[in-house]
């Protein structure tokens, strides 16, 4: 019944899901960095930076991810010749997909982090200054530890959404899970079975992430 | 301006802020100049590429029909998903284990699967097992995928809406002798619907964005799909992408602003219990409410 699974080797089913994991991991790290930078801009005292951060988030959040991913391939690569330092078409597609995912997901990471900073009551900072802590001490000892803990839950949501969003990379031919599913489901007779196998794959990927990070966020939550 | 991160700036901090502003402004200008130059180098700024968008033909033949299909799919998905979501949301709150647990399993299952997978599956399913015509099939597949996913997200919103009501509401209903069903339909739901409205409108943004997937992967003739036809005719890939992106931004910005306005307005009016749920509140409530949830937010909002 499952023999059709081994008929595919470019990509194989393991290869396809491994690609999904790689896309998720790389874009996750990338969007965490870029999203944190954006969040830093959005809460900074410099109005111009705040404006830039706000504009970026509001623009990117309202564009479908599909448009962004497709643009990286048809626009950046084909017209502007940004090959991302790749000689191979496959590697180039992968890197472009990561670029698109980072650009998109960072907007959501930024919002999650910003909401985390906002959950810290103003009194915490005022109390810290009142006992004579310097700005960097206030930030590193009082505010950020509390902010990070309250941000784990929302960031876990973003990570799960990112895992699901990597399927959009199939639109530019990155050989990940949705790409293989499209190929399989069009060529094989077992429609329901193929659907179930790939659905199961994603449940396996997303459920533990949610459970572990959900547990962690509850455990580390600041009790108020 | 003081925030939790910094004080109202004094003279030194003000000078530093001005310095940062100037440096950032210069960097931003350099970036813009670089983008402009690159576009100019690749001849993307020539008027011939942009001219089609000033004429009616590009709009009436390609963009507007595409936009109409986008809106049609989004509206259909919302209209079908809403009652389904309500049903599952209420089922998850049932006192009977055998209703609550299966409903929870279905909701969590569809929330943890990418919409694209659901669309691909629905497309193939209709092709093999039903007599839906080839022209109609992409629309059916897109709407099916969107409904399955968004009904489960809306179920969570409904659940959060009902849970956010003060306990006194259902207690009072019980005290005057209403049945469980009556309590739900006459007391809890009407108040919960008002509370949920902003979150539901925000979900429309997600639906609109997800229709674009159907255009690329299963050939549904929505905005992004008609864009590629347009770009093939006028040979203007970059301008068409920019115009389409702007259309999406404007459309979604209107929806987001409407949700925000609704939230503010409902918060001000005191006709219900005063609970109004924005998007973030739903996720928080569901995360806080452990019973019946596997503790996953499943990334509802993206």
Automatic annotation (TrEMBL), chain A:
Q: Which UniProt keywords apply?
A: Amino-acid transport, Cell membrane, Membrane, Transmembrane, Transmembrane helix, Transport
List, alphabetically, the CDD domains matched. TM_PBP2
Localisation per UniProt entry: Cell membrane
Domain ABC transmembrane type-1, chain residue ranges per copy: 17-213
> PROSITE patterns, from UniProt?
ABC_TM1
Source species, domain of life: Bacteria
Family per similarity comment: Belongs to the binding-protein-dependent transport system permease family. HisMQ subfamily.
Q: Does the keyword Transmembrane apply?
A: yes
Q: Name one Pfam family in it.
A: BPD_transp_1
GO MF term set? transmembrane transporter activity
Give GO terms for biological process.
amino acid transport
Q: Which organism is it from?
A: Streptomyces resistomycificus
According to Swiss-Prot or TrEMBL, what is its membrane topology? Multi-pass membrane protein
Instruction: Give the matching InterPro entries.
Output: AA_ABC_transptr_permease_3TM, ArtM/GltK/GlnP/TcyL/YhdX-like, MetI-like, MetI-like_sf
Q: Can you quote a single GO CC term?
A: ATP-binding cassette (ABC) transporter complex
The protein's name: Glutamate ABC transporter permease
- Extract the SUPFAM superfamilies matched here: MetI-like
Q: Spell out where the chain crosses the membrane.
A: 12-41, 62-82, 94-115, 127-148, 154-180, 192-216
Gene3D superfamilies found in the cross-reference section = MetI-like (1.10.3720.10)
Automatic annotation (TrEMBL), chain B:
Q: Per the record's keyword annotation, is Endoplasmic reticulum included, yes or no?
A: no
**Any GO molecular function:** transmembrane transporter activity
BP-aspect Gene Ontology terms? amino acid transport
**Subcellular localization, per the record?**
Cell membrane
Q: Which InterPro entries match?
A: AA_ABC_transptr_permease_3TM, ArtM/GltK/GlnP/TcyL/YhdX-like, MetI-like, MetI-like_sf
Give every ABC transmembrane type-1 domain span: 67-259
How is this protein named in the record? Answer: Amino acid ABC transporter permease
What is the species of this protein? Streptomyces resistomycificus
